[in-house]
């Protein structure tokens, strides 16, 4: 069974490679190597990895179990892993007693709009950079790449002043607009677009298709995998972003989930079950996304890193 | 010439004779139209604040008053400000501690998981899941774990018979290590996935050839895998250094820079000067000094690792 499992388990996307069928076959060729009988080494390998995985999952498990305890049990000494009485009281009190629902909505809304804008704006720019030759293109691309170097933290002070001037403090747009600037995503897309074949585009061009049609009906459909990767990666970073929403929102109604969580922590005092319940609520959406879109997430990370190759 | 045809819906005229050469060879201003929306965002929310901040750094501006021009005074003051040096020292110390750990652990985890094909999705989930958590969730969980007496960290040490009573976050000499531990748990999944992707792209033929030559597992690791991961390692180190230098969230949320000022990073100092003391001009100056430092480190890094690719073309 171990022989067949890998072939099924490793579709093309897992290798982070871009050509679906050849990529899949190539990694499929690793199968013979794994046909070896299970050796002592393999067992040791398995045990070490499993121990590390347990270590890695432990903080999450600890937080989850804490969230299911009655408040009185959370500070028991010596420490007890399992609650003697399982309860959802902490979840009920968090959902009923704070703005978690609103923050969840704010996070979903701002992360979704940011992602859509990043994908649209960055892919258009990447098309312009990769597939056309307007004068000044190289200079602008170089500037864009230099933008990757600017730590966002350096921008917070002047950016906040700008938001005050624009009246965007405590608004969705105040949270969204600065995050639309994603030079790294442009760079990733430029690299990908540059690798696409020219034939289709030339044929369309001869048929009189406009640049816009070529971009929208040829380049974009061809780029679905990388666009999915960019979307998911942008969504993850935006959803989890703390510093900027923390700076630009002071009104609890405008806060995103990660920021609201901190605002409410003080209110809970030392009620650990509730704090952990709120944390679990905030952690869940992306964990589900990861389980559903594991391949795209993995590819997203691979693209971020391997784009230079 | 082509400039005139920008507004036209059809590109037919300006493309003239598509028979010779590819369309992309010609000067074509429509491309600029595609880049414009991005440029608008780029200028409005990156270039402009960057320049405006540099302007502000030469003034005595507060949050609502523009202040007056003070030349380079803020920069001079910043260089003389012991708190700037403390926070800079903390940032560099964090970077120095976390970078090797995050690169090495990421590599080891990837090597292990790459070998274990069955259940790979589970290993990947285990090591990558923390990366998906918002920093505030990570901070809340680890402050809880690092609680004295009933926290999980002390509890686990007690379970194996130790009772060290470590002041994980309250002991000034320990706090930074606790934050580094937390950071490793939280973000190593990213490096792990980069390495895993790199491992999967190594052509299998190399290993088959080596196996025929009788190279054993360790030999293959040292002579094939690790050398072929060189470029990825360069990249991981660069990305990690830049990420570590930018540390703020977890420190601010776990220790608020304390105990005392044992863990305060530059960004938090900038934040406090700007948003608590409302000295926007001074805060800008400090952040520019920091930016200059990051830029120097990034450029040195690119010299060391990045240009190899360019010259290879």
Automatic annotation (TrEMBL), chain A:
Gene3D superfamilies: MetI-like
Domain of life per record: Bacteria
Keywords, sorted A to Z: Cell membrane, Membrane, Transmembrane, Transmembrane helix, Transport
InterPro entries in alphabetical order: MetI-like (IPR000515), MetI-like_sf (IPR035906)
Protein name: Carbohydrate ABC transporter membrane protein 2, CUT1 family
Transmembrane stretches, start-end: 43-65, 103-127, 139-160, 172-193, 214-236, 275-293
Family: Belongs to the binding-protein-dependent transport system permease family.
Region of interest called Disordered, as start-end residue ranges on this chain: 1-35
Keyword Ligase assigned: no
Annotated membrane topology: Multi-pass membrane protein
GO biological process, alphabetically ordered: transmembrane transport
Location relative to the cell: Cell membrane
A GO CC term assigned to this protein in UniProt: plasma membrane
Domain ABC transmembrane type-1, chain residue ranges per copy: 104-293
CDD domains (alphabetical): TM_PBP2
Claim: Transmembrane helix is one of the keywords in the record: yes
From TrEMBL, chain B:
InterPro entries xref list: ABC_transporter_permease (IPR051393), MetI-like (IPR000515), MetI-like_sf (IPR035906)
Membrane topology: Multi-pass membrane protein
Similarity field: Belongs to the binding-protein-dependent transport system permease family.
Protein name (database record): Carbohydrate ABC transporter membrane protein 1, CUT1 family
Domain ABC transmembrane type-1: 88-301
CC annotations in GO: plasma membrane
Location in or out of the cell: Cell membrane
Record keywords, A-Z: Cell membrane, Membrane, Transmembrane, Transmembrane helix, Transport
Sequence intervals crossing the membrane: 32-51, 92-113, 125-146, 174-197, 228-248, 285-305
Annotated region (Disordered), positions in chain: 1-24
């Amino acid at each position: 069974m171990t022989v067949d499992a890998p072939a099924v388990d490793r579709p093309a996307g897992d290798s982070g490679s871009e050509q679906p069928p050849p990529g899949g076959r190539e990694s499929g060729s690793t199968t013979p190597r794994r046909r070896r009988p299970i050796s002592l080494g393999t067992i040791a390998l398995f045990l070490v990895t499993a121990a590390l995985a347990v270590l890695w999952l432990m903080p999450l498990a600890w937080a989850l179990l804490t969230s299911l305890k009655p408040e009185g049990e959370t500070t028991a000494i010596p420490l007890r892993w399992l609650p003697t009485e399982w309860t959802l009281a902490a979840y009920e009190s968090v959902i009923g007693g704070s703005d978690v629902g609103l923050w969840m909505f704010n996070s979903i809304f701002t992360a979704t709009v940011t992602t859509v804008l990043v994908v649209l704006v960055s892919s258009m720019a990447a098309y312009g950079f990769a597939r056309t030759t307007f004068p000044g293109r190289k200079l602008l691309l170089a500037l864009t790449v230099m933008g990757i170097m600017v730590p966002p933290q350096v921008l917070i002070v002047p950016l906040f002043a700008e938001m005050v001037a624009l009246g965007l403090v405590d608004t969705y747009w105040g949270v969204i607009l600065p995050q639309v600037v994603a030079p790294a995503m442009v760079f990733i897309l430029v690299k990908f677009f540059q690798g696409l074949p020219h034939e289709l585009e030339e044929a369309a061009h001869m048929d009189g298709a406009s640049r816009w049609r070529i971009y929208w009906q040829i380049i974009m459909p061809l780029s679905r995998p990388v666009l999915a990767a960019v979307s998911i990666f942008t969504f993850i970073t935006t959803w989890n972003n703390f510093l900027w929403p923390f700076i630009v929102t002071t009104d609890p109604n405008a806060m995103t989930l990660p920021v609201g969580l901190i605002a409410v922590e003080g209110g809970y005092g030392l009620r650990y079950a509730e704090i952990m319940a709120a944390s679990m609520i905030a952690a869940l959406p992306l964990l589900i996304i990861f389980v559903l879109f594991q391949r795209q997430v993995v590819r997203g990370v691979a693209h971020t890193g391997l784009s230079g190759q | 010439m082509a400039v005139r045809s920008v507004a036209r819906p059809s590109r037919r005229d300006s493309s003239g004779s598509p028979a010779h050469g590819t369309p992309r060879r010609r000067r074509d201003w429509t491309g600029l139209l595609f880049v414009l929306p991005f440029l608008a965002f780029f200028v409005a929310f990156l270039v402009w604040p960057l320049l405006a901040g540099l302007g502000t750094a030469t003034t005595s501006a507060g949050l609502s008053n523009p202040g007056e021009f003070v030349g380079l005074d803020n920069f001079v003051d910043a260089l003389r400000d012991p708190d700037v040096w403390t926070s800079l020292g903390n940032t560099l110390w964090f970077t120095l501690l976390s970078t090797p750990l995050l690169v090495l652990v990421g590599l080891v985890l990837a090597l292990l998981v790459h070998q274990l094909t069955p259940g790979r999705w589970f290993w990947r989930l285990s090591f990558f899941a923390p990366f998906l958590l918002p920093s505030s969730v990570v901070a809340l969980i680890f402050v809880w774990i690092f609680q004295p007496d009933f926290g999980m960290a002390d509890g686990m040490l007690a379970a194996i018979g130790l009772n060290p009573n470590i002041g994980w976050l309250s002991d000034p000499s320990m706090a930074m290590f606790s934050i580094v531990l937390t950071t490793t748990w939280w973000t190593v999944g990213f490096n792990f996935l980069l390495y895993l992707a790199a491992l999967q792209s190594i052509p299998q033929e190399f290993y088959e050839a080596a196996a025929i030559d009788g190279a054993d597992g360790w030999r293959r690791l040292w002579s094939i895998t690790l050398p072929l991961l060189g470029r990825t390692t360069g990249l991981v180190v660069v990305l990690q250094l830049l990420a570590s230098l930018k540390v703020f969230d977890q420190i601010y949320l776990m220790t608020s820079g304390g105990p005392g000022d044992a863990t305060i990073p530059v960004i938090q100092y900038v934040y406090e000067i700007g948003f608590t003391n409302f000295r926007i001009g001074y805060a800008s100056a400090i952040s520019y000094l920091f930016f200059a430092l990051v830029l120097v480190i990034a450029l040195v890094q690119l010299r060391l690792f990045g240009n190899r690719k360019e010259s290879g073309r």
